[in-house]
Design a protein that fits this description.
This protein has helices at residues 16-24, 27-37, 43-49, 54-66, 88-91, 94-107, 181-187, 190-200, 206-213, 217-229, 251-254, 257-270, and strands spanning 7-8, 70-77, 80-86, 116-120, 125-126, 129-133, 145-149, 233-237, 245-249, 271-272, 279-283, 288-289, 292-296, 308-314. By secondary structure, the chain is α+β, with helices and mostly antiparallel strands. Strands 5-4-14 form a 3-stranded antiparallel β-sheet, with no helix packed on it. Strands 7-11-12 form a 3-stranded antiparallel β-sheet, with no helix packed on it. Strand 8 and strand 9 (245-249) form a beta hairpin. The longest helix has 14 residues, at 94-107. The termini are far apart.
């Protein structure tokens, strides 16, 4: 696969959202790319940095090479030694990784100590990335957007191509790193990601989640219970129908929007369906098609990969 060129999808096949979630809904993918950004290139370096088995590491490095996220380079022939280098496709993942880091840092305090320290070199400050509109540069949130399915968009075509099927009570299973636990609870399960997407599009009632997603009632109930347990959704009683609940995003849930926005933008940039994009967002304030941009909360300047200094030394909780 040419890691410098977008992948052209087949008509009617899983769209950019499905392909993206199939890749990034795997925690090892995110962790291996994160370690590559921190300077790891060799098998032993990845193995030393992560609680990963040899079998899983070998399989994931092979998958990431096949998908154009890493490039395998032979640097020694006898004995055979290879290194795995970042590609344009994986380097462009930095906004998604940065928003995941920021969300976990703010909303999952127990894991803040495991996250790297980030400094914006243009102002020499530790920072928080601010999601902004690439057209007008204003800070944005999900409520500022109008979103519609694009030509290749539908719930059916947006199902992850390599999805997991874990239930909430077994999400932490052998072979999972557990380093981005709550992010993976959203991205790492096909129904979880779909349900959160529906919630951001305004679905609130159990029956509407069931009908919109085409999911069994027990599965919808399991996912809602999971998100209520972590404070991503909250149940509220309706005034018009006593005894019925609506499930709405909490502040924590709404704060996940930058992860969704940057992840979808990466997917639409690298997976092109012949019919057109899967989902189109318009920034209501400036009427422009939304292109996410991250800005430094300290100096206001646009963040770029090369102006972010990453230190393996974690910041405090």
């Amino acid at each position: 696969m040419d890691s410098e060129q977008p992948t052209h999808l087949k008509a009617g096949a899983p769209n950019a959202i499905g392909r993206t979630l199939g890749l990034l809904g795997d925690e090892w993918t995110l962790l291996l790319i994160q370690q590559a950004f921190l300077g790891a290139t060799r098998y032993g370096q990845f193995k030393a940095a992560l609680p990963i088995s040899n079998a899983v590491l070998t399989a994931r490095l092979g998958k990431l090479t096949k998908e154009g996220l890493l490039e395998r380079h032979i640097y020694q022939s006898s004995p055979l030694r290879a290194e795995y280098l970042l590609t344009p496709r994986s380097r462009s993942l930095w906004p998604a990784l940065l928003t995941i880091w920021d969300w976990e840092r703010h909303w999952v305090p127990a894991h803040a100590a495991t996250l790297p320290r980030m400094v914006h070199t243009e102002c020499s400050q530790e920072f928080t990335p601010v999601l902004s509109c690439g057209a007008c540069t204003r800070p944005v949130a999900a409520r500022d957007m109008d979103g519609v399915w694009g030509p290749s968009g539908s719930w059916e075509r947006s199902v992850p191509t390599a999805s997991t099927r874990r239930r909430w009570d077994s999400d932490q299973t052998p072979g999972q790193a557990g380093m981005f636990p709550e992010t993976m609870a959203i991205l790492g399960n096909r129904w979880s990601s779909a349900l959160i997407g529906a919630a951001f599009r305004g679905v609130t009632r159990f029956a509407d989640f069931e009908r919109t997603l085409g999911a069994p009632p027990a599965l919808v109930a399991d996912r809602i219970k999971a998100f209520a347990a972590t404070g991503v959704l909250e149940a509220t009683r309706t005034e018009t129908r006593p005894g019925w609940a609506e499930y709405r995003l909490t502040e924590k849930g709404r704060a996940f929007y930058p992860v969704i926005a940057t992840t979808l933008h990466w997917g639409h940039s690298w997976f092109l369906a012949p019919e057109g994009p899967a989902f189109i967002q318009t920034h209501r304030s400036c009427s422009s098609v939304f292109v996410p941009e991250l800005r430094c909360d300290r100096c206001g300047k646009a963040l770029h990969r090369r102006t972010i200094q990453i230190s393996p030394t974690a910041a405090g909780p």
